[in-house]
Amino acid sequence: MNEKGGDAFEHWGEAEKEAMIKSGIEGGAELDKLPIGSGLEIATRNTVYLVEHRSDGFYLSGNEAYCQQPTKVEGLGSNFTGRSGSMFKPEYIGRGMFMEFITPAGKQIVTSEIKEIREVSLSEKTEETNS
Question: Of 71, 66, 87, 67, which is closest to residue 13 (Cα–Cα)?
């Protein structure tokens, strides 16, 4: 309930409420808690991305069209519906949600559904790339 006595989510439809509950159950990663120098491997339905937390922000790679090489992105987070800006949760990547980010050219991208999230050592990924 909110301070006026109503449900804070009363304007949400059943699908949105179910998506939020599902995300809480399936879990995710809070990017602001990800140490600098570490990363996340994020598998969506269509692509596997690597998010790197560097001292100057978040870098994303793995998408042939937008970020083949590590590319600094803004507005990284995820949403519940697959529509840009719809129920957006900034600096959070959640299973069952849709990753969202803004490219250096200012294009807002929403990925397919996130299936798996795994924290990785960036030195581990560098070794795999050099093998």
Answer: 87
- The whole-angstrom separation of Cα 42 and Cα 18 is 22
Q: Scanning the structure block, which residue is given the tokens 């570490």?
A: 38
Please tell me the predicted confidence (pLDDT) of residue 87.
78
3-state SS assignment for residue 12: coil
Six token digits for residue 20: 């939020």
In the chain, DSSP assigns E strands to 28-30, 38-44, 48-54, 57-61, 71-79, 88-90, 92-94, 98-102, 108-121
Determine how β-strand 92-94 pairs with β-strand 38-44: unpaired
Those residues of the chain that have pLDDT short of 50 are 1-5, 126-131
pLDDT at 82: 76
The structure tokens listed for 18 are: 């179910």
| Entry pTM | 0.77
What pLDDT does residue 121 have?
A: 84
